[in-house]
Amino acid sequence: MIPFHKYHGAGNDFILLDDRAGNLHEQFDQANIAHWCHRRFGIGADGLMLLRSHPDFDFEMIYYNSDGAPSSMCGNGGRCIVRFAHDLNIERKEYRFLAVDGPHRAKLLNNGWVSLEMLDVEDISEPEPGKVFVLDTGSPHYITFVEDSDAVNVFSEGRAIRNSAPYAKKGINVSFVSTNGKELKIATYERGVEDETLACGTGVTAAAIAAVRRSGIANGTFHVPVKAKGGDLAVRGTLRDGRYTSLWLEGGAVRVFGGEL
């Protein structure tokens, strides 16, 4: 029997496994993981993660999408695995862990949120200037600004963009973003899940960067609140000479339940 734990970050939910002993990773194949993530025949999740020991970091994050395939970086997953590490009595003032896109730092905030440092971003293209932005925040994202993200059929419209040229082969996450001047609202279709998710951390980060770029601000710090369908998140960072640095994705990370496989 393998103990598992279910966590979510703003409704983006994950199965987490403690693999510090290093004997779980090789037991899994894509079909197993897809079955456990299935919402009717398994536990149900947007992805599965293993927390593994690493000689140079507090831990290593191994992540799979709900289709069972290895994935690029997951921001909300990163925040959830930090909460999981804390719950496993791995206690740090500041965590350092290794993910597929490289090292990350993270902190537990006084308000109960988890703050995760994301990679710097510089390369941003605008297929439709001022409306559509394509960038990589650890995972590739297509950000399109719309009048009301709640009115979009995210599954059909997101799926169409994700499978269009030139994105079809590798896939791309698609987010529909609207703003009321105070905060962003976002709805996301995720590749690998191949459906809408209630939140996407790298997508929220990409949306905040796109909003700052769209605003015309040249340099300075920023803090962008973002309302996903599963909860509230925020992104803070610094823009200097076209480069977005000191990017921190912040939001809740909650244990839901546990059991045995």
List its traits.
globular; 44% strand; alpha+beta; single chain; 261 residues; 17-stranded mixed sheet; 2 domains; Diaminopimelate Epimerase, Chain A, domain 1; 4 helices
Word description of this protein:
This protein has 261 residues and is α+β, with helices and mostly antiparallel strands. The protein has helices at residues 30-37, 75-87, 154-162, 201-215; strands spanning 3-9, 12-18, 47-54, 57-65, 95-99, 102-108, 114-117, 124-128, 132-136, 140-145, 173-179, 184-190, 195-197, 220-228, 231-240, 243-251, 254-260. It folds into two domains: 3-118 and 254-260, Roll (Diaminopimelate Epimerase, Chain A, domain 1); 124-250, Roll (Diaminopimelate Epimerase, Chain A, domain 1). Helix content is 17%, strand content 44%.
